[in-house]
Each structure stands twice: as structure tokens, then as C-alpha cells.
Amino acid sequence: MKQFLALLFIYSGLQVPGLADTWQQKADYRIQVDLDVENHRYTGQQQLFYFNHSPDTLYRLYYHLYNNAFQPGSMMDVRSGTIPDPDARVSDRISQLAPNEIGFLKIYSLTLDGRSQDFEVEGTILEVVLERSIPPRAGVLLEMEFEGQVPLQIRRSGRDNKEGISYSMVQWYPKISEYDRDGWHPDPYVAREFYGVWSNFDVQITLDNQLVVAATGVLQNGEDIGYGYSNRNIKHKRGGKLTWHFKAEGVHDFAWAADPDYTHTNIEVDEGKVFRFFYQKGKNARKTWGELPEIMKEAYRLIVARHGEYPYPVYSFIQGGDGGMEYPMATLITGERGLSSLVGVSIHELMHSWYQGLLATNELLYPWMDEGFTELAEVTIKNELRKSGHLGGPYQDKPYTILYSSYRKVAKMGIEEAMNTHADHYRSNTAYGMAAYNKGAIFLKQLEYIVGEEHYETAMRKYYEQWKFRHPRDVDLLRIFEKQSQMVLDWYLQYFVYTTKLIEYKISSIEPGADETVIRIDRQGEVPMPIDVEVFYSDGTSSLHTVPLRIMRNAKTRDGVYSYQVEPDWPWTDNQYLMRIKADGKSVKAAEIDPTLRLADFDLSNNRMEVP
User: Fold this and answer.
1) How many Å is the Cα radius of gyration of the chain?
2) Burial 100-121 (b: 16+ CB within 10 A, else e)
């Protein structure tokens, strides 16, 4: 593991053959922080070894100071007061925070290679106009002293959450902004997602010795700590402090949580890989969290088989936060849930280790490439657990259809926005959630419909192998699928991601004849799509046909266990298509568009027609 990650970072600044412009910046953090639990403040020192692997000279640097969002009048506070459907967890709560309840990060000093640097703080962003620039392929040492106050729990980070967890410490330190092939990304924090630099973390956390700490990374001094990190039963006298020393390699963030009442259990899920669980034994937690380890061990097996290796030694499921939120090697989730809900959120957040953790697209520009893909994986894996008996509830043949139903409801409301909208700039939370989660999941499932299951599974594995630790964009994913399927697919991205135009097809007529039956299909929406049709015959048999778009320049012939008869292609300029079915001694009784229900057709009521 260490050799793998070391090699990753030695070569992270170089281009990979066949993948142009895939250099990555690199940051090594050393952080020492001391938390005073009486006033919920912490002081810290940070050493940041920053490596400019880009071909550009850097004249400025930017840091994120996320805690500053939790102050009356912040951008997050204002945004929550002006968006038509504010998140109930935020609402107007920030505006009502008292001085000892707000969050802040104050920077007292900043040096570059020992020389003091001037800086300016605007809300959640710190800007440094460098005294001397950082040329390509150069590294510098940035040192900082800071002080933070932990806000009352509102969104993700904070103290004393609704379930009584003392500290949910996420986005708590000054974090260097990402600089990639699209430039700097110093986005103000208004409660959306995150984007970061591949980093190594060496973090020492000093706090009251009665608090149990769960964190990103591997604890280095577990034998001195106890609390389930070793077999030693160590009793720490009240009134003292402990320093917890964690290391994490090849991640883009570091999160931790602390509570005096955590129960800490663990299970080995693979050779050398451990899942840890931190929770309070509440009303339902003893049973649900007690069952969670074995279920997640099986979920892990299914996930790795479908999505690729998990390259880190540990993952922690931590009760905390305000719902469910992913971080490297860890998640913070509210824990007072029924078993099905707890398993669902645990699978969802664990799956983020692949899409947000390893592939790590910029979630502010492509939230659907993380949240949507994770949503589809959650639905699929949870359904497989039901099939194998590891989780109660009925197995569904097409579990993904619930995602399509939610999408159609929002589309009917008329508030849908294009998926390429910046995550912070959606007009409503409803539109953001539908685009990022539901439609993002549909994008993938519909891509499977277009290219076929075999090409889809192979392409997704290639996507992971070629783009892990590389911050892919939407076009990078699409090119993997084009190469695998030998189809032209740019039209799909343009229509489905960059617009809110609808897919709507209808079987208008079935006209039997002596030699053939003509099935007329009308395109009533603006989005052209290949169309699968199942034709049913009077003898009880059926046949599968696919009508490719001419602009695809290819067509699927197989899709899982099914074979398709490829019909003449359909020019996108034509709104009508005539499918001709040879009689062959059989009469057509009915025809149905998309029997697998993977096409995001707007109105399903006109997709089937029976012959009178």
C-alpha cells in the first residue's frame, strides 16, 4: 500500500501516456492542533509542502477557510435566506448564532520558505499575492499559525449535533485550493460540495482524554491511546489531555470527530483492510449498528467486484454531522435510523470513496458525476444485499426505476436546470438535488441502455483504472465509452447534460400487412435517442429490435443476456420512423418501447400499443 501511494506521488506531476494534461498538484500537510473543549476553540500550526506540478507559474495562492461560513451575514447565511427552498438544516439558523456559537478560522501568520507573506481574507477564502512566484515543477514550504472556533452544528461541521455528538470536525483547517488544468478553484462555501488537492496528511490532535477520536487515516499511537485502537484496556484519568497522531496518504481532505460516549468496533473486510464503526448506544443504535459491520463487509465485496479496488487500509463509519457526508477514509452520518436507512446511507457514503475520493471530479462543476453515480451504486448494491438475504426487504428486478420517477416529477414541475450548471448557482435546492442525484444516476443507466451492458461494465472499469487520482471531467468519461463501444456519443452529453430538453417517444400505429407489419414511432420530444422495441407475436414469442441514431455511427447488438436485431438508423432530423417487421408466418400482436425502462422517456403511457 505505502509503495503504491509513494509511487503515485513520485509520478503525480508527470503525464500519463495517452492521457494529456493529467498532471496534479501535490500538498503534504503537517498539522498540530489543540482543542479547548471548554470554549470550543482550537489553536493550530500547519506546515504545507506544496508542489507545483503544473506547466504554469503561480503568482497567487488561495486557501479555503470553511468555518467562516457559520457567521451571520456570510454568503451561506444570505444564500439560505434568498433561495426559494432553503435546506431545513440551515434555514435562518446562521443568522441567529451568538458570538460563542459562530465558527471562524483566524490566520495569525503565513510564511513561504520562511518569508512572511501578506494575505487578505474575504469570507471563506484567503488570498495570498506571493512575494515571489512559484515556477513550474517547483516546491515551497508554507507555514501558518491559526485559531478556530467550532460552530454550533448547522451544516456538516460543528459541535453538539442533534444526536448529541460532541464534535464533527470537517472542513476545519486552512485548506489549499485546487489548481488544475482549468485554473484556480477558490469557490466560496455556501453549503455545497468540495474539491481538493491530492495530499498526504500528518495530523496531531490534542484534546480532553475522555473524548474518543475517529478520523481520516491510520492512528499511529493506538497502543498509547486504547479506546478500541488496540487490545490494551487503558484508563485515562479525567482532567488530562491526549494527543492522537493520524497519517493519511493520497487523499484530498482530512476529517475527524470526537465524543466521550463512542462505542468503537471494527471488522476486517479484506486482507489488511479494516472497517471501523463509532457510535453511541442509543435507543436503536445497539441493534442497528451492531448488525451493520457484517452487512457492510458483504457490501464491500460487491462494490469492489463492480467498481474496482479500494486502495486505502481503513474506512470509518462515524456517527456525527447532520445527515450523511463523505470524506476520505471516513463518513459522518446521523445514526438514529432504522437498519435499512443506516445501510443505505453507509453504502452511499462508502461509494463516494470511488467517485469523490479516487476519481474526484470537481463536484462544484460536475456534482452529478459523483452524487449521481453514487446514487445509482447505492440503489444497485442495496438491492443485491436483499437478493442475497443480507438485508431485509423485497428484491426488485428494476430498482433504478424510482430514480426515473423522481426525475419525471421535477421535470413536470418546470423547475429543472441543466446538469452542467455550477453547483452553487442552481436556482433551487430541488433543481440541484434532482440534477446531481437522480438525473446523474439516470445518465449512467441510460448510457448502459445506449451501448449495452457488456460495454458499459467494461467502460466503467476502464474509467476507474485510467482516471483514478486524475480529476476527470465529463468528456473524459464519455471518451472511455466511445472507445469501448466504437460509437459517437457527443450528442448524448450535449442534449442530456447541457440542456433540459425532454425525451419523448410514442408508438403511433401498428399496421399489419401480408408481407410485413409497419410500426410507426413518433419522436415528440427534442432529444434524439436510439430506440429499443420489443415486438410480441400471436404465438407467444417476441423479438428485440434496436433503432440506432445515424449520428451514433454504430449500434449495440447485445445487452446482457439479450440479442438485438439492428434496424436501419434514424436521422435525428426526422420526427417519424417506420419499423418494418417481416411476417415470417407470424402476426404481430403488440409492440413496446424500452421494456427495460432505462430510457428517460417523459410519458410512459404511450410506449406500448396492442393490435386490436
Assistant:
1) 27
2) ebbbbbbbeebebeeeebebee
Distance CA 282, CA 64 (A): 35
Q: Name the phi and psi angles at 279, rounded to 5.
A: -155, 160
Percentage of the chain beyond pLDDT 70 is 96
The residue whose grid cell reads 404481430 is 588
Q: In angstroms, rounded to a whole number, what is the distance separating the alpha carbons of residues 442 and 422?
A: 19
Q: Tens digits of per-residue pLDDT, 19-42?
A: 456 799 999 999 999 999 999 999
The rounded distance, in Å, linking the Cα atoms of 104 and 148 is 5
Name, in order, each residue with C-beta under 8 angstroms of 602's C-beta and a sequence gap of 6 or more: 408, 411, 502, 503, 504, 525
Closest CA to 26 of 39, 41, 10: 10
Torsion of CA 252, 254, 255, 256, to 10 degrees: 160
Answer whether 588's CB lies under 8 Å from 536's CB: yes
C-alpha distances out from residue 125 to 186, 187, 343, 595, Å: 7, 8, 36, 50
Please tell me the pTM assigned to this model.
Answer: 0.95
- How high is the pLDDT of residue 53? 97
Q: Residue 21 has what pLDDT?
A: 60
What are the grid coordinates assigned to 367, written together?
456534482
Confidence (pLDDT) at 509: 98
From 432, 464, 286, 428, select the one nearest 368 (Cα to Cα): 432
Alpha carbon distance 494, 377 (integer Å): 24
DSSP 502: P
CA distance 231 to 251: 28
- Angle at which helices 453-467 and 440-451 pack, to 10 degrees? 120
- Round to whole Å and give the CA distance between 460 and 196: 23
Whether the Cβ atoms of residue 71 and residue 103 lie closer than 8 Å to each other:
yes
- 438: cell is 437522480
With a cut of 50, say whether residue 4 has pLDDT above it. Answer: no
Other beta carbons within 10 angstroms of residue 338's beta carbon come to 11
Residue among 322, 380, 328 nearest 349 (CA) = 328
Handedness of CA 367, 368, 369, 372 (dihedral sign): positive
What are the φ and ψ backbone dihedral angles of 23, each rounded to 5 degrees? -65, 155
> Which DSSP category does 197 fall into?
-
Q: Are 24 and 53 in contact (CB under 8 A)?
A: yes
User: 39 forms bridges with which residues in the sheet?
Assistant: none
Identify the H or E element spanning 294.
Answer: helix 285-307
CA-CA distance, 85 to 91, in Å (whole number)? 9
Domains within the chain, CATH numbers bracketed: 1-257 (2.60.40.1730), 401-497 (no CATH), 505-610 (2.60.40)
Region 409-421 average pLDDT: 96
At 482-501, the pLDDT tens digits run 999 999 999 999 999 999 99
DSSP reduced 3-state for 280: coil
Please give the helix or strand (H or E) that residue 390 lies within, else none: none
* 3-class SS of residue 484: helix
Is the model's pLDDT at 143 over the cut of 70?
yes
The 10s digit of each residue's pLDDT in 512-531 is: 998 999 999 999 999 999 99
Q: What are the grid coordinates assigned to 155, written together?
A: 451544516
- Residue whose entry in the numeric block shows the C-alpha cell 471501523: 276
Q: Which amino acid, one-letter code, is at 503?
A: I
